[in-house]
From TrEMBL:
Organism of provenance: Arthrobacter oryzae
GO molecular function: hydrolase activity
Record keywords: Hydrolase
BD-FAE-like domain boundaries: 21-221
UniProt xrefs under Gene3D superfamilies: alpha/beta hydrolase
Stated name of the protein: Alpha/beta hydrolase
SUPFAM superfamilies: alpha/beta-Hydrolases
Pfam families for this protein: BD-FAE
Length: 265
């Protein structure tokens, strides 16, 4: 296995690490987006074991770091970083013969939110960017945008309005977005994956049966809303808790790896 680190900006948290398998097959790329309720104390070290495991099973993995609330992130920088970090794959594709016709996002918890949100970048452009004219949010294929072609959300926070009402992780949503939905209604709408339903890419919303960190209603609500529109979204429950989904030895994670492999096929 080989690994290469690249920066996509000047901030210390604007980087990703590419994990390359030693042998074929290596179709497409998996973007690993870590969780931690968007807070700065949780970083890409959470995604590293997954990236290593994916590479060990013949898949190219891009373990993405980004600015979080508390270290220069929050609105809009966390969101800009995720898009810029994914687009960085276009800059390094030639160097490593990456195939970008299949780019699957594998996101855990807050990373699940960011993965599904990023997959909806084209739909969100129709909403108009709140607060500022953010060119990155409106970037299209012709401008070098790398499109997500499928998502596996692992206990993702996919219904931000409900997460805010439930005060999950002591106000994590308000912390991310810099204020309440009453103060910043457009910002909250834009950041919520529910606003981009339906997406044209397949999405698996996976949730642990014993998860007491992110309620399964987050995955169920998103899946239900998407399925009503005919979108290709499936809700799956797997045995285990919140962190079994990112434990390479756990059944819950192995199911996620199987889903990722299928999306790359």
């Amino acid at each position: 296995m080989k690994r290469h680190k690249y920066h996509y900006g000047d901030h210390p948290s604007q980087w990703g690490e590419l994990f390359l398998p030693d042998s074929a097959p290596r179709r497409g790329v998996v973007v690993v987006i870590h969780g931690g309720y968007w807070r700065s104390q949780y970083g890409a070290e959470l995604g590293e074991p997954i990236a290593k495991d994916l590479a060990a099973h013949g898949m190219v993995a891009w373990n993405l770091e980004y600015r979080r609330a508390g270290n220069g992130g929050g609105w809009p920088h966390t969101f800009e970083d995720v898009l810029a970090g994914i687009d960085k794959l276009g800059d390094i594709a030639g160097e490593h013969a990456l195939e970008l016709d299949r780019v699957v996002a594998l996101g855990h918890s807050a990373g699940g939110h960011l993965a599904v949100w990023a997959a909806g970048r084209n739909r969100l452009a129709q909403l108009g960017t709140p607060d500022a004219d953010r060119q990155l949010f409106r970037r299209g294929d012709d401008d070098g945008a790398v499109q997500i072609t499928g998502v596996v959300s692992q206990s993702g926070l996919l219904d931000l309005a409900a997460a805010e009402r439930l005060n999950l992780s002591n106000g994590a949503v308000i912390n991310l977005l810099g204020g309440t939905p009453e103060r910043y209604p457009k910002r909250h709408k834009y950041a919520d994956p529910m606003s981009a339903v339906p997406l044209k890419v397949p999405i698996y919303a996976v949730h642990g049966t014993d998860d007491d960190t992110v309620p399964s209603s987050q995955s169920e609500a998103y899946s239900g809303a998407a399925q009503l529109t005919g979108a290709a979204v499936q809700f799956l429950k797997v045995p285990g808790d919140h962190f079994d989904l990112i434990d390479p030895k756990a059944v819950a994670y192995r199911k996620c790896r199987e889903l990722v492999r299928g999306l790359l096929a």
